Amino acid sequence: MIIILPTLFSHGVSAPLQNMVLRAQTHMSRPALGGFVIKAVVIHLTITLRAGAGVRLVCEFLELSGLSAVDGASYGRQYAVTVQVQEAVAKQAQKQRVLLAVGMPPRELAVCEDEAFHPDVCLVTIEPVSNFILVEQYAPDRT
Questions:
Q1: How many domains, in total, are found in the chain?
Q2: pLDDT per residue as tens digits for the range 46-57
């Protein structure tokens, strides 16, 4: 999270988080709300990414905690913030993969075949230790 927060703000924060920053700055004299922007990002990271819950739980948390006074607890509002946080996490993950790959020596991998059915047959090749999907492709059948 230490890496994600600077990334989120250094890549140009779009409208939902800009509005949140402005609202939080107007409340800076109130200590409980001073760090609201970081708290909001932590709320979204924890609830939607770590706990696997959805935006509705974020809305409920903001409402019950009283933080909805600073940032609206509507689904549309919080969905926009969640999308931004997820995009920032994905950008940071891609950067980390590139940086870490430079120092990694080549090695042999074992792979496993699998399939998923959404909406059609999807053939998948997975590295079993990390569960990283290497290849996926839709096919007319399982052959």
A1: 2
A2: 898 888 899 999
